[in-house]
Write a structure and sequence with these properties.
Elements (H helix, E strand, L loop, with lengths): L6 H32 L3 H6 L3 H4 L15 H7 L6 E12 L3 E11 L5 E14 L2 E11 L4
Antiparallel strand pairs: 1-2, 2-3, 3-4
Length: 144
């Protein structure tokens, strides 16, 4: 970044440079989450999600603790396949600490047969521990 120009020009150049780093950071977190799903790695999945997102009502044990893998098992594991392809990805930032990653995701089995093809949106929030997925929406890609 060259600090020559008006304050607005320097700020715009700085913001453009930083936006690329932040976009890469949130896309890396999203990629790690999809990797955790494919590898059925509940611990990695839980480490990338907020505690609130992992909460499933009426799923507490007798001590009031939530089974950490319940959301994973209930909503993600059936989407796991042998190969995952992500395309048409976009990232939108909101307020500097929130990002929405939207993409089409296709999973295939060993034979190359499509297991599922979904449009997913994952909402990420940046805090003290980095990016955490706080919400997701999934719907079938139209035309299947």
């Amino acid at each position: 970044i060259i600090g020559i120009g008006t304050i607005e020009e320097v700020w715009d150049a700085t913001k453009a440079a930083m936006d690329g780093y932040v976009k890469n950071d949130v896309l890396t977190a999203n990629s790690l989450l999809l990797q955790a799903i494919n590898e059925k790695n509940v611990d990695q999945y839980v480490s990338l999600c907020s505690a609130e997102m992992l909460r499933v009502e009426d799923e507490e044990d007798n001590d009031g603790n939530l089974p950490s893998g319940e959301v994973f098992n209930k909503y993600e594991i059936h989407e796991a396949g042998t190969e995952t392809y992500v395309y048409n990805a976009t990232v939108a930032f909101q307020g500097g600490t929130k990002a929405i990653v939207t993409y089409d995701r296709r999973t295939e089995d060993n034979g190359g047969n499509i297991v599922s093809e979904m449009k997913e949106s994952r909402v990420w929030s940046h805090g003290c521990n980095g990016w955490e997925c706080i919400h997701f929406i999934r719907k079938p890609v139209s035309g299947l």
